[in-house]
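G., the chain you wanted modeled:
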Amino acid sequence: MYTHAPTPTLAKENGAYYTPLAVADSLVRFAVRTPADRLLDPACGDGRFIALHANSVGVERDLVAAEKACERAPNAKVYRGDFFHWAETTHERFDCAAGNPPFIRYQLFAGETRGRALRFCRSLGVSFSGLTSSWAPFLVAAAALLRQGGRLAFVVPASIGHAPHAAPLIEYLVHHFSTVRILAVRKKLFPHLSEDCWVLFADGFGGATEHIEFIQVDCFNNFEERLALDSSKLVPVREWRDQWRSRLRPYLLDDAARSLYLNATQSKSSVRLGEIASVGIGYVTGDNSFFHLRPSEIEHWRVPAELIHPTVRNSRLLPSEVLSSSTVEDWRQSNQPAFLLRIPKCANLPPTVQSYLNSTRGEKARRAYKCRSRTPWYSVPDVRIPTFFLTYMSGEIPSLVRNDAAATCTNALHAVHLNNGKDTDRLLQSWRSPYLKLSCEIEGHPLGGGMLKLEPKEAARLLIPPPRLLPFGSEAEVHRAIRTLRGWRHYD
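Predicted structure as tokens:
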């Protein structure tokens, strides 16, 4: 997260936003122990971290920001260029590193810089997936430039508590530092951003630890007071890895709530959703406006009924519990674009359909990336009829809707296919149970704006408890746990 103030569009692309000065000051005070300590900021932006300590080095790829850093920190050394290229070639080593790395998502963290970053991390024994955001490789590379006993102090996205690409980073840290401390901050460090930020401290480079120190604070201002009170939870690395799938988010709950949930998962009569069903996304057309037709368009182009299939384009079309034939009829009557042009690969196309494919809309659609990458371009793949539709973004709890109309759906929804028809009633009965609501909070993750998101793998881990399990747990404790996790994702 660069620390200069570019335009909002450029800021979003570069992961660039101001770092509050109080935060920068606290991180530098943790990292720097003596005036002689050499401090590194791998993405120094306008220089507000390196300006706090004279013996500093900053690296910044943006020319304007690098110039501001030189003005702000005249005693520091500022290198302009790609940090990973510099890290591969420099012989400099540091006593500490502090800063706020760019939070560039994987879609924009691409090209030569991305390739170099991932190669450099692999050379250090850290393998990140193709979905890695930029901040995690920045921290690994910065740590590799430390001297024995060195320290890290960085602002990190709250996704360090749940994102798959955070796990390789934390594994690296616990194997290379004697202390790893993560500060979860509930109130936003950057109020204008949807994403929350936490803070990472690591001390004793060259050592190792079997625990992660996890501390919760309501706001950043009181974290030093909490540290003085020794209020951290010691999270065993093995427990974090094995019981919670390398996620720290469950440790926002108290011990009693985590134990209740673990007891439910270990019950022989409990199952995960992925044990009784497959969970995946719906089809991708490449051009929704072309392939999703209104009844009036179907009539105009005289598309045969056998080439049309009702579909759920987005969650707004879903009823609350059951998608029935009457729902589909309502779509027809209101002329909704909720009917997929479903053409088999080897179909004999009637002249009317050929006319539609060759229309101006068709010419545009066939040039779309997904369409031109398949043969024939007009045959949408992976069209399936799920047992249930599952929304993957929600405020309170994802909606599970039974598919009695044999409709299909786009990738705006999850498609749930039961392995057999025997578990339908059990799934519906359990969906509103407290344990399942808690499971959604634990297995899913915050998206921003108070929303909860479930990726297919996360949805497959949702806990389906038996009804008889519920009375044995403390329902009040479960509801408190739900409120706690909703509070941390800012859902009121």
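The chain has a mean pLDDT of 90.

Shout if anything looks off.
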